[in-house]
Design a protein that fits this description.
The chain has about 160 residues and is α/β, with parallel strands linked by helices. It has one domain: Dehydroquinase, class II (Rossmann fold). It has a five-stranded parallel beta sheet with strand order 2-1-3-4-5, with helices on both faces. Helix 2 packs across helix 6. The longest helix has 17 residues. The radius of gyration is 15 Å and the shape is globular. The protein starts with 8 loop residues before the first strand and ends in a 10-residue tail after the last helix. It binds 1,3,4-trihydroxy-5-OXO-cyclohexanecarboxylic acid. 1,3,4-trihydroxy-5-OXO-cyclohexanecarboxylic acid binds next to strand 3. 1,3,4-trihydroxy-5-OXO-cyclohexanecarboxylic acid (DQA) binds next to strand 3.
């Protein structure tokens, strides 16, 4: 199925467990700004920088894994996903991403390569088109650009249906 010419790509920005605490939790890793500020940063910057790409952003955060999995299952064209700690623990999330064949970029605010051993493993990354971390809010913005470029490049290819 091809993307209709004027229809924007429906993109989900999904933040998982504990990302509701942005601005209050470990500021040395996650900065001083809140989740709402992240949302408004992405809305503004994506209009400025990605205005050539037809995208429509939706935002979702949950600490409830079941709700998170359900949200991912809606018919998105693509997603930016920061699973928080589920990155390193959740086979359920990884299995859902594999089954959905959702086109997504995994992002992290912090530079996880410089952090604890248990953060070095992502169960989800293998299903992502790529991973961006360590750039704070700009991990999401860079992820969005990469995702939009990928969607444009592959728009004439048949869409993967869930496994
Ligand atoms: C995080 C990194 C994870 O290891 C951590 O559990 C988080 C946030 C990040 O954005 O840097 O909750 O995903």
């Amino acid at each position: 199925m091809n993307q209709a010419p004027d229809k924007p790509y429906e993109i989900l920005i999904a933040n998982g467990v504990n990302l509701d605490l942005l601005g209050r939790r470990e500021k040395q890793y996650y900065g001083t700004q809140s989740l709402l500020e992240l949302q408004s940063y992405l809305e503004t910057k994506s209009k400025d920088l990605l205005n050539k790409f037809p995208i429509s952003l939706s935002f979702f955060q949950s600490n409830d894994e079941s709700q998170f999995l359900s949200e991912l299952s809606k018919p998105w064209d693509g997603a930016i996903i920061n699973p928080g700690a589920w990155t390193h623990t959740s086979l359920a999330l990884a299995d859902r991403l594999a089954a959905l064949r959702l086109c997504f970029v995994e992002v992290h605010l912090s530079k996880i390569a410089e952090r604890e051993e248990f953060r070095q493993r992502s169960y989800c990354a293998v299903h992502a088109i790529g991973t961006i971390c360590g750039l704070g809010f700009d991990s999401y913005l860079a992820g969005l650009l990469a995702l939009a470029l990928h969607l444009e490049k592959t728009k004439s290819e048949p869409k993967a249906s869930p496994n």
